[in-house]
Amino acid sequence: MKKGKFIVLEGLNGCGKGTQLPYLADYILGLDKSNTIFLTREPNEFDDNGKKAREMLKSDGDPYSNNIEAVKYFAKNRETHNSIIAPLLLKGIHVISDRYWHSNFAFQHTQGISYEEIAKANQGLLVPDLTLIFNCPIEELSKRLQKRDGENRRKFDSNLEFLARVGTNYVNLQNILPDLINDESILYVDANRSIEEVRKAVVKAFDIVPILSSRKYF
Q: 6-214 has which fold?
């Protein structure tokens, strides 16, 4: 049986990944009637670690706080997540996840945790077949978040300087993660375009999963 593909959508809140996820799922389903897809996200509530992580993300306050706890909760929740999705992949089911360890490398490194420490906490876990990181200027993200959430911003969305540093980390991951955790799955999507233009870029990126050695920017 052909193994399913593990696909991750990543980026700062407001980048559009949540909008694109169902479009990608519909595209994959339309390619072959035998295709089956499992949609998921991180952190999730498959265990108490995920619940604690989600509580931290909802909280207000200093975006630089609780960095060590965040790495621990996310990694432990990811272990549980892996135990659920790994058997599905072996059965040929495609898995699309809204966020994975890339969020930790981007956010918790901004909080002061080294890439090496984050990698150590995630050793032995599933490596995605494709990770799409949606890039968008901070100014545009700020407008989108204001329109979506108003002043009721979540923890990491309240400090634009912090978000800019996270965005820089996301850009660096393609060069850092291959050697650090054997993750060569990253492609970048220009998310500062119309929904339809981004959708076409996402589809194009999925179609080249078998030849990721020719990584490009879409």
A: Rossmann fold (3.40.50)
